[in-house]
Amino acid sequence: MFSSTPSGGADPYVPGHGDLAFGVDSYDLTLDYTPAGNRLDATAVLACRIVDDVPEASLDDGGVRRIELDLHHRLKVAKLTVSGAKMARFGQERSRLFIRFAQPLAPGARFTVTVAYKGSPGPMRGLDGDAGWEELENGVIVASQPHGSPTWFPCNDRAADKAVYRFAVTTDAEYHVVANGTLLRRRHTGRRATWTYECTAPMSPYLATLQIGPYQTRQIQAKPTDVRLVFPPRLREPVREAFSEQLHMIDFFSSRFGAYPFASYTAVITDDPLEIPLESQTLSTFGSNFANRGWDAQRLIAHELAHQWFGNAVTAASWEDIWLHEGFACYSEWLWSEEIHLGSADQRAREAWLRLSRLPQDLRLHDPGPKDMFDDRVYKRGALTLHALRLTMGDAAFFTLLQRWVSENTGKTVTTQQFVRLADEVAAAAGVEPVGALIAEWLETLPLPQLPGPGSTRV
To answer: What is the pLDDT of residues 250-300, one digit of tens each?
Structure first.
């Protein structure tokens, strides 16, 4: 019913990215960035391993003789070394960095790759558009989803390859640097400053980010989760008002999905307006146009926070399953609306169903294709799938399903098949008929299914 193995490389939605023959356990990135001229001088240390289930096409004399990293062609390698294995040679071909070993490496072999590189980073093109490093009027924003990570560091750019990260970023002292995870220290040296962050929770490369700007920070909670707002000084009051419900949101989603999955959460608000907010692990990035109390801003603040559970802690192994991210985050908007009495999830769902019913019925929710992966119909139909499931299973079983989905898969990558199996298991335990066919109708058919009749949608 649902395919689970990407074809045409690591993932056909991001062709030319990722290598299935190896994985990366950790990235240690040392970045020196000069805003004037947009110059990056960096070193990346990758702790790697040959995977146990090497694809047949990658085998050479029983092992792996060549691997490929992703690195945008605007960044040039100055030096590359390998420890733990003997390298024959390396080279750059467009936005791929290949390493050829003197002897084939057996499955399970571990080695470390150190890459010194430099250049003027910028976004790179993909089937869905541009992504990656982008200069703002005064600073930098990195939007890596789904293929932009190679614009600023060499990586095995596939969602299923999670690793831990350390970032040490040096730039002009007047700038504030934000990266994933916890800030370990900030050290000033003359007119420069080095910010060191550590992300110890496994993270897919596309969720790694870097935000640089003339910001200030407000910590709104220290424990159990370090929660911060980072913003331009001129937006201090609008940001305070716009994010006044941030702690309430975290507590509410924790009650529905399980405990917040990371040690910290940061919302970065740029001085520039942005078309859409940006998802990344342990932080979200919003344009100045979202610093308000209107519903369109508040629903997206809730949406990006929900991605910490659905997309970041629990990550789809391939992009054909993007509904597992966006459908869940969109449904979280409706749950938040219900929580603050701006309309029940059922009302929001039926309004969304009516709007979708008037649009072309030519999108398949599971495996929508790279050009439609961020189509609003994926978001709304994914959310409607969950609402149909909730109406069918009942609130107790439905939220048990969401909590188990998170608790059993945090730090891992998942597939639609796994979700269907768990949904049927939870339904059976609750005395409900199997729901796999219901989910398949919403995900696999083109015509929009009918929602079940309204029922109790309050916890």
So the answer is: 999 999 999 999 999 999 999 999 999 999 999 999 999 999 999 999 999
Q: What is the pLDDT of residues 409-432, one digit of tens each?
A: 999 999 999 999 999 999 999 999
CA distance 95 to 269: 31
Alpha-carbon gap, residue 458 to 441, rounded angstroms: 25
Through-space distance between the first and last CA atoms of the chain, rounded to whole angstroms: 32
- Summarize pLDDT for 303-342 with one digit per residue, the tens: 999 999 999 999 999 999 999 999 999 999 999 999 999 9
Take residue 101 and report the two structure tokens written for it: 């070993």
Q: Which domain holds residue 246?
A: 215-308
- Considering the domain architecture, whether residues 301 and 334 belong to the same structural domain is answered as no
Q: Which residue in 196, 132, 198, 197 sits closest to 164, CA to CA?
A: 198
* 134 lies in some domain: no
CATH of residue 382 = 1.10.390.10
CATH number of the domain at 198, please: 2.60.40.1730
Q: What secondary structure does DSSP assign to 185-231, as a single string?
A: EEEEETTEEEEEEEEEEEE-GGG--EEEES-EEEEEE-SSSEEEEEE
pTM for the full model?
Answer: 0.95
What whole-number distance in Å separates Cα of residue 293 and Cα of residue 342? 13
